[in-house]
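Let us practice reading a record.
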Amino acid sequence: MNREILLNLKKPVNFAEAGLELQNLTLLEKEIYYGVLTIIDQNNEFSSDLLKDTDVLVGTVVGFPHGTTTTEVKVFETKQAVTDGATEIDMVINIGHLKSGMNAEVQADIKAVVDASGGHTVKVILENAYLTDEEKVTACKLSEAAGAHYVKTSTGYAPTGASIADIKLMKASVSPHIKIKSAGGVRTLDSLMEYLDAGISRSGATTTAVMIDEFIERFGRE
């Protein structure tokens, strides 16, 4: 991993946040400008307003964290999130449908969210902790067929999060234009660099500020 690549990927690292002390967190985003603040949906409008004069985007979650809400609910959540200023949607796949072999229903669920997003970035959370490797591959292919932009490992609420093995499997299961996002367990700069080498373009983290500080200490700000 060279410095130039990490600098290019530093900004879009996501910060997963449950809404506590949101105003202070949003102001931190303004200071270190690392791309996307991902929050629970009730805070979209507030965060979008605080960040309107910055390059930081607001993302939110749909069908979170279990993915079992109906497609109609996910569509409503997506449209409301976009209206409130969200520009990226992280939706949870319907895990039960996937494990039941209901592939057409899984793909239709994802496509409905993609269509409702109005052209904004949609990431599909697979929640790999509950899936076999075969199911992970199927989920990746269904996500791509439905028009999603990313496949993502985890919500951060399952027993396990991202793994290098899963990143490599997901990368091999989609076309080059589909991106990979890790979530859960990537907490240090060295770990982030390892995951970047494995093929991710984004990583959700609750220690983003710490990793950026470490990066600046090692390589400088510019």
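A brief commentary: The radius of gyration is 17 Å.
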